[in-house]
Amino acid sequence: DGLVVSEKVKSNNIDVKIPESELEAEEKGAEEERPRESDSNILDVSSDYPRDKHISIQRHLADLEKLADLREDERKPCPLCPEEKFKACYSHKLHRHLQNLHWKVSVEFEGYRMCICHLSCRPVKPNLVGDQTLSKMGAHYHCIICSATIVRRTDMIGHINRHVNKGETESRFITVRAPKSSYKVVEESATDVQVLPNHSTPQKTDSYFNPKMKLNRQLIFCALAVLAGERKPIECLDAFGATGIMGLQWAKHLRSSVKVTINDCNENSVTMIKENCHLNKMKVKLNIREEDKDETVGNGEENSDTIEVTKMDANVVMHLRSFDFIHLDPFGSSVNYLDSAFRNVRNLGIVSLTSTDISSLYAKAQHVALRHYGCNIVRTEYYKELAARTVIAAVTRAAARCNKGIEVLLAVALEHFVLVVVRVLRGPTPADDSAKKVRYLIHCQWCEERVFQKEGNMVEENPYQQLPCDCYGSMPGKTAVLLGPLWSGALFNTGFLRRMLMEAVQYGLDEAQSLLKTLVCEAECTTLKHFSTHSPADENKQEECGVYIKTPNTSAESYLVHGKRKSEEVLRSTAKRQRPEHNAEHPPFYYNIHRHSIKGMNMPKLNKFLNYLSEAGYRVSRTHFDPMGVRTNAPLAQFKTVLKKYSTPTYVGTQAEGPVHLPGEIHVGEEVPAATAIKVEEAELAEDDEPGVATAVFTQSYPTHCAAD
Questions:
Q1: Nearest-5° angle of CA 685, CA 688, CA 693?
Q2: How far apart are CA 709 and CA 514, in angstroms?
């Protein structure tokens, strides 16, 4: 009984023919029932059969007036307003009402006008005011594409634009493929993927593709390539495929070493993943599980060019199957998927997760970090490493609940993401050992000195005594804050990073190579000029989790994990017999050289300052967390002492970098210009003044060997 629109689609142009006989008005009872029946009757541009649309969606104002059947001698009600809002009136008044209240505030889309509707087809929450509130709040728009009802006009325009960007044209969000001309092909690491034009805006598209995450994808690929060298084949899962770029890179470069499964719960993304697989000449083994059907589509035989595509929730697919390598990259935090990830991951497998909720991890939204990670953090100079340790602590607790321990292989925190890669160790003993490394951090808010709380359950009388600084005794009130719980162990595994670097060189991943070199130096706490391709402690063997992995210089007698894993007794005995002597972990956290600079003094160059600290007997390296950060085991007081010693006053423009010279050490040249010479008589660090401020006394002296006038 509703208005029927017959459509004809030719090259995206819509020709609509509306029979005049169907535009006649029905009885009042039929008009009241029409909005209820038309909630799901939406214009379908892609279908070949007629579909009903809501009466508020018309092409011309005359079509809207025909619904009211305007006659000069009769009173007619408004077809888009209830009787309690607008009573029946004559044609001239109803014409002005339809034009001013409905037509002028309509939203246009492809020749149609979505007029505002005041009928009771939008549910309104009950209010004490009663029917008056219903009549005021019931105004809304009906979407021409889906069954949604939108209140505001600006929201309706944005809603339609999102449909256009996604290529959605069918009702109830059952989408069809956008025209081929609207796709954009992007190439990355010899892999082509087609994306929508708005692929970089996650709020407006389901197939989110961020070019800025290229470095993240390269690091994950290197980690998978290292695992593929240990045992073959390995089953790996990309739990949030989106465009499928990451899984396609795995299958295209590693070939028969991996069995790739790409999962996504969105139908648009699954369709795009399949198209991208065909674009890269990969066969698709489709396994879609929905509520009402369980269907498997694909080729019977599996080969190296076959990718399995699944459409289900990430938690479900990780509960149903076991994997050797799992990568989690949801939009935001990944804490909701950690329990499922560690449920069925195999022993000595790898779990990598990318967290993009940097507002909470970087202490901009501290309440969100407390809610998601159960961790209390504040903004510090080492906030990026604090974020990485926060994520690892959540990973450790999730693994321990499944009687699994972890060893952190890699932790990277950059501008857009926090990446953590861990190896899984099955058993209650590794789980207990990992859980013991989750501790609280004592952070001084005055000097930013920090130290992990000592192990043990006994309450200390004065926890401030654990801090190396004496701010608690010299400053009034409480000076420190308790942060955490955080991961207190190492953030890097040197052997794993070196093998990742070899894979990056082999596959030509230039962006990852420079970062991996920095990570290796950071893991060993050494400068880049001392960097070597092989470990100085043990050039032939690299140990990870008690397992020795063969490196290029390894002899045939070295232990190699290949195929099935060795028994725990063999691994334990080899670890006891051949554990390297030099296995010192890198010091936790770092200091920013600008944060502790001295007022009125020029700091030395960063590389020179690293040499000065190293000459003082401390371990030192740069860090990827902060370009001006220094990772060292020196206490903050010694750090500042060395920095003060080798800083130069700002007023000495020609003095070279080096320690501040005392008066007896100043050498005057033979020739001095006739102008006034400035000489430093005394340059001493004032112990009683504010820390970081140096005082100097200047005297003006004239040359004694100048010629007389």
A1: 45
A2: 64
Kindly report the number of other CB atoms within 10 A of residue 345's CB atom.
Answer: 25
For residue 454, give the DSSP letter. Answer: P
Tell me whether the omega of the peptide bond preceding residue 485 falls within 30 degrees of 0, making it cis: yes
More confident residue, 131 or 527: 527
CA 106 to chain centre: 39
The CB density around residue 469, as the number of other CB atoms within 10 Å, is 21
**Residue 147 vs residues 46, 47, 131, 138, 173: alpha-carbon distances, Å:** 16, 16, 25, 16, 9
Q: Is the pLDDT of residue 640 over 80?
A: yes
Q: State the Cα–Cα distance between residues 548 and 276, nearest whole angstrom.
A: 39
**Cα of 42 vs its chain's centroid, Å:** 37
Most confident segment among 66-75, 152-161, 510-519: 510-519
* Cβ–Cβ < 8 Å for 74, 36: no
Report the candidate in 420, 399, 403 with the shortest Cα–Cα distance to residue 492. 420
Q: What is the pLDDT of residue 101?
A: 86
* Residue 325, phi then psi, degrees to nearest 5: -140, 125
Task: Give bridge partners of residue 700 from the DSSP assignment.
Answer: 678
> In the block, which residue shows the tokens 């195999």?
346
Beta strands in 293-360 (DSSP E): 294-297, 306-311, 323-328, 345-355
Q: Is 673 exposed, middle or buried (0-12, 13-18, 19+ CB in 10 A)?
A: exposed
pLDDT value for 620: 95
430's CB contacts (< 8 A; 6+ apart) are 404, 405, 406
Q: What is the pLDDT of residue 403?
A: 96
Q: Of 178, 39, 169, 192, which is closest to residue 110 (Cα–Cα)?
A: 169
Bridge partners of 118, per DSSP, are none
Rounded Cα gap, residues 17 and 707, in angstroms: 108
Separation CA 305–CA 259 (nearest Å): 9
β-bridge mates for residue 236, sequence order: 260, 325
pLDDT range class, residue 206, cuts 50, 70, 90: low
Using H for helix, E for strand and C for coil, what is the string for 178-222? CCHHHCEEEEECCEEEEECCCCCCCCCCCCCCCHHHHHHHHHHHH
Cβ neighbours of residue 380 closer than 8 Å, sequence gap 6 or more: 363, 386, 443, 448, 450
Tokens of 320: 């149903």
Which pLDDT does position 134 carry in this prediction? 41
Average pLDDT on 242-259 reads 93
pLDDT digits (tens, 9 = 90+) for 578-637: 333 334 688 999 999 999 988 889 999 999 999 999 999 999 999 999 999 999 999 999
Interior angle at CA 407, CA 401 and CA 410, nearest 5: 120
CA 51 – CA 41 distance, rounded (Å): 7
What domains, with CATH codes, occur in the chain?
57-121+137-166 (no CATH), 526-532+588-650 (3.30.56.70)
**Burial 495-534, CB ≥16 within 10 A → b, else e:** bbbbbbbbbbeebebeebbebbbbbbbbbbbbbeeeeeee
Q: Note the pLDDT of residue 83.
A: 82
- Model confidence, pTM: 0.66
pLDDT of residue 459: 82
Predicted confidence (pLDDT) per residue in 308-319, tens digit: 999 999 999 999
- Residue 657 pLDDT greater than 80, yes or no: no
Task: Report how far residue 182's alpha carbon sits from residue 357's, in angstroms, rounded to the nearest whole number.
Answer: 30
The rounded mean pLDDT for the chain is 76
User: Any residues with CB less than 8 A from the CB of 661 and at least 6 apart, and which?
Assistant: 680, 683
pLDDT at 461: 81
